[in-house]
């Protein structure tokens, strides 16, 4: 009979271990999902128009958004005790300014191209046609069905 008591004790320990492992797995799965969302948000954040509102973005908007995502990455690393031997988060953080500056460069190019255009036409082009063409182009380029869906929604929103 003593043997059976030991077996139950071993089984209880194994069940407890399985519960702990299941909880750890759930944390890892959620963390992977969070990381993927951060990467997606990085990709979605580097556009001259806000994908949700359609408003014009500046390098300052993009910079602030990307730096918030850097903080989220670092927080995730700390929570999961991930060692970043190659210092990837800081390397990305150091590149954010250069990445964001591309938005202002893009707008400088757009404004230069339409300097000689009548103000009403220019406003229509920048507020209506350009966002539609931009999101259509992005939708055609992406291979991700989920991102394509968001780009097409932004296209639809830009057309009113």
Overall number of strands: 0
Could you state the order of secondary-structure elements as H and E?
Answer: HHHHH
Shape: elongated
Spatial gap, N to C terminus? 78 Å
* Number of helical elements: 5
Secondary-structure content class: mainly alpha
Radius of gyration: 24 Å
What's the story with the biggest beta sheet? none
Fraction in beta strands: under 5%
Helix content: over 70%
Oligomeric category: single chain
Number of domains: 2
Mean pLDDT over the residues: 92
Q: Uncertain spans, ≥5 residues at pLDDT below 50?
A: none
Protein described:
By secondary structure, the protein is mostly helical. It folds into 2 domains: 2-105; 114-160, no CATH class. The chain has helices at 2-45, 59-80, 88-113, 119-141, 145-158. Helix 1 (2-45) runs antiparallel to helix 2 (59-80), helix 2 runs antiparallel to helix 3 (88-113) and helix 4 runs antiparallel to helix 5. The longest helix is centred in the N-terminal third of the chain and has 44 residues, at 2-45.
Name its key features.
160 residues, mainly alpha, 2 domains
What order do the helices and strands come in, and which of them pair?
Blueprint: H1 2-45, H2 59-80, H3 88-113, H4 119-141, H5 145-158
Helix pairs in contact: 1-2, 2-3, 4-5
Summarize the structure.
The protein contains 5 helices and no strands. The chain is elongated.
